């Protein structure tokens, strides 16, 4: 076992902190202690607009399905069954969206590239480590820096503006569930739109909906376009995410053609590492691990921050 001085010389050969960093290790420990007490939220204008648009589009689809197609239907059980299915899918989709957006994707503690921290790692002579010059942290293997989150993210797959967050090690399962439930609800909405058009053409347009025929047609056309776009996007994303998980390769690693230096977890091992445990209904439950606590506002430099 080499001495700490030996390890420090190896570290100092590749300086981790510059003179301009001025990092205080005590502030890091306190911030890390409070990390679990804060709701993760990215203050990005484009991301917040995209997230709000996602919710509004889902609410619009629910409005058209419920008030334009199902409630005016004369078939009671048809309305009840399809209403329950669609609304359950919508709730699960929006819950998965919230979990993806408000879950820390695996951010590396900012500013931990200190000599004290390096000594605690017990590095071997000649062992190579990497420091992110932007957030002054030690980059773990497979971590990448996100310019929008302004943090290094473990197993970062990509930054998605529609969930206003990075998709990484800790929230990938929720992103997969979000794409799956949106795709399923889009297919369901498209099927209901087709049945509604057939019903209105065979019968009277004034009887198949409580809205006027022109308004009904416009609402259904917009819902069909939304369903097609949402299904295409989320189905492709769902497929690529499952492929990446089964091959234990993030989208960034695939695009950069990075050679794997880690032991890959292929197929079911990769799925179990992301969704947790053997296959079960918990895999498709976005509420797993959720703990509701009182929401507070804590004053911080640069503006207030939500905390729980």
UniProtKB/TrEMBL annotation:
Q: Which keywords label this protein?
A: Acyltransferase, Membrane, Transferase, Transmembrane, Transmembrane helix
Annotated membrane topology is: Multi-pass membrane protein
**Which reaction equations make up its catalytic activity?**
L-cysteinyl-[protein] + hexadecanoyl-CoA = S-hexadecanoyl-L-cysteinyl-[protein] + CoA
Q: Where is the Palmitoyltransferase DHHC domain?
A: 131-257
Q: Please name the top-level EC class of this enzyme.
A: transferase
**What are the recorded Gene Ontology BP terms?**
androgen receptor signaling pathway; glucose import in response to insulin stimulus; negative regulation of catabolic process; polarized epithelial cell differentiation; positive regulation of D-glucose transmembrane transport; positive regulation of epithelial to mesenchymal transition; progesterone receptor signaling pathway; protein localization to plasma membrane
Q: Which GO terms describe its molecular function?
A: protein-cysteine S-palmitoyltransferase activity
* Gene Ontology cellular component terms for the protein in this record: Golgi apparatus; membrane; nucleoplasm
Task: Note the coiled coil stretches, chain numbering.
Answer: none
Question: InterPro entries in the record, alphabetically?
Answer: Palmitoyltrfase_DHHC, PFA4/ZDH16/20/ERF2-like
What EC numbers are recorded for this enzyme?
Answer: 2.3.1.225
Instruction: Kindly list the places in or outside the cell where this protein is found, as annotated in its UniProt entry.
Output: Membrane
Q: Which residues cross the membrane?
A: 48-70, 76-94, 174-198, 218-238
PANTHER family in the record: PALMITOYLTRANSFERASE ZDHHC16
The entry assigns this protein to a family as follows: Belongs to the DHHC palmitoyltransferase family.
Query: Record's domain comment?
Result: The DHHC domain is required for palmitoyltransferase activity.
**Under which name does UniProt file this protein?**
Palmitoyltransferase
Give the originating organism. Myotis lucifugus
What high-level taxonomic lineage is stated for the organism? Eukaryota, Metazoa, Chordata, Craniata, Vertebrata
């Amino acid at each position: 076992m080499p001495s700490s001085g030996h390890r420090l010389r190896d570290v100092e050969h590749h300086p981790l902190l510059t003179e301009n960093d001025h990092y205080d290790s005590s502030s890091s420990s306190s911030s890390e202690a409070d990390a679990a007490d804060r709701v993760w939220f990215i203050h990005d204008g484009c991301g917040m607009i995209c997230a709000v648009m996602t919710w509004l589009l889902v609410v619009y689809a629910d409005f058209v399905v419920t008030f334009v197609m199902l409630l005016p239907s004369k078939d009671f059980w048809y309305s009840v069954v399809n209403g329950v299915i669609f609304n359950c899918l919508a709730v699960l989709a929006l819950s998965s969206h919230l979990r993806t957006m408000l879950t820390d994707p695996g951010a590396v503690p900012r500013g931990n590239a200190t000599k004290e921290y390096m000594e605690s790692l017990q590095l071997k002579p000649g062992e190579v480590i990497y420091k992110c010059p932007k957030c002054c942290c030690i980059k773990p293997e497979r971590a990448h820096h996100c310019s929008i989150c302004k943090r290094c993210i473990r197993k970062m797959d990509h930054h998605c503006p529609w969930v206003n967050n990075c998709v990484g090690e800790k929230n990938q399962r929720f992103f997969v569930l979000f794409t799956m439930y949106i795709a399923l609800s889009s297919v369901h909405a498209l099927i209901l739109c087709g049945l509604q058009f057939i019903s209105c053409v065979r019968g009277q347009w004034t009887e198949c909906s409580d809205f006027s025929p022109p308004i009904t047609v416009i609402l259904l056309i917009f819902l069909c376009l939304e369903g097609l776009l949402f299904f295409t996007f989320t189905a492709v994303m769902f497929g690529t995410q499952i492929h990446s998980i089964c091959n234990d390769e993030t989208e960034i690693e695939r695009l950069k053609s990075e050679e794997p230096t880690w032991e890959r977890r292929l197929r079911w091992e990769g799925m179990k590492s992301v969704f947790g445990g053997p296959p079960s209904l918990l895999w498709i439950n976005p509420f797993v691990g959720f703990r509701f606590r009182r929401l507070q506002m804590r004053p911080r430099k640069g503006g207030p921050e939500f905390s729980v």
